[in-house]
């Protein structure tokens, strides 16, 4: 069973058994679940085994979302579904459907979760009966368990609900830009606007003016989309309270709308003119826009050298064939796929045509002419030019299940002063 299902029950057990070891409780709970016992019944069995009665929970009737306190059962609420997502989750009891999303009433917005197939539809109103309330990651959420009943509410229910006047889901969290993670809501950040492009888009509710741009503090640069024109300009230092975080290819992106509080601040001495330099270790957690990574090339990967690209979509051909357009007469190109290590970790990088030409000191045409008889000779030449070389790469870092990967737009040699590097290491280790 997924850890996110077990963790809240282990927490309840720990509250009832403060002297017990939490890891032991987790192992015991997992053992019961492996035998096919549902989690709540397993919890009761463990408490009985330890001679403790399960803490009583209050069964209540109809409530507004703002009235919920946590640890309640038998809750009835009338809500509108704002978002709903389903995915298959593998558990120790087999594959199950997890449904999560946000619901709202006149008082606030809360998260819901169901492992029992309760699939709420966006923009529909429901009366939820027999729900329970639990705390997960510091926030109350509605849990639609096996005893919950989901009924569509009568037509006209919550017809006057104005979502824009409700606070965004979650408690306000103040973070630096480097600590933004996809899925966070209600974040509070400060930064300097490096770019801001206003444009108009079409939505289901008609034309809407948005602002796309880049925000920076001393730790990181992050792309943003403002779904409301707050009137800030390039160069303004602003605070944003009530933003939320999405991601594109593992790169966090900040979003905020008219519910956010945006305030212009006095000029803050952010060192934003210099591109932030991040460690590979930091980039294991999240991708980044426009950063520097300095390290040593430790490997030239397969797929480097002369390649052929599809003339229609620019994808690299494999065996003369494009995965989308089939067999093609490819266009010759050049690239270098490398692994760079900065002492905290490693990440992959793909040097584009221009950067690979810069490294080799030769154009694509010259490489094609000189190494047409042996591709391996070109790869050997790349190894001689790159392996063991200290570089500073600048560009976007994307992250997926295989780890961080950089697409550099710029490449420079990295020269270091051993004495200065030693001083930095001693300072980081807090050695007097």
Task: Provide structural commentary.
The protein has 432 residues and is of the alpha+beta class. It folds into 4 domains: 3-49; 58-164, Nucleic acid-binding proteins (OB fold (Dihydrolipoamide Acetyltransferase, E2P)); 173-265, Beta Barrel (OB fold (Dihydrolipoamide Acetyltransferase, E2P)); 280-419, OB fold (Dihydrolipoamide Acetyltransferase, E2P), CATH 2.40.50.140. The chain is 19% helix and 42% strand. Strands 2-3-4-6-5 form a 5-stranded mixed beta barrel. The chain has a 5-stranded mixed barrel with strand order 9-10-11-13-12. A hairpin with a 4-residue loop joins strand 10 (206-216) and strand 11. The chain is globular. The mean pLDDT is 85.
SSE diagram, text form:
Blueprint: H1 3-16, H2 22-34, H3 39-49, E1 58-59, E2 72-91, E3 94-104, E4 109-114, E5 125-136, E6 139-143, E7 149-152, E8 173-174, E9 187-203, E10 206-216, E11 221-226, E12 237-248, E13 251-256, E14 261-265, H4 280-283, E15 288-300, E16 305-309, E17 321-322, E18 326-327, E19 331-341, E20 346-351, H5 353-360, H6 364-370, H7 375-386, E21 390-400, E22 403-413, H8 418-428
Parallel strand pairs: 1-2, 4-6, 8-9, 11-13, 20-22
Antiparallel strand pairs: 2-3, 2-5, 3-4, 5-6, 5-7, 9-10, 9-12, 10-11, 12-13, 12-14, 15-19, 15-21, 16-19, 17-18, 19-20, 21-22
Helix pairs in contact: 1-2, 1-3, 2-3
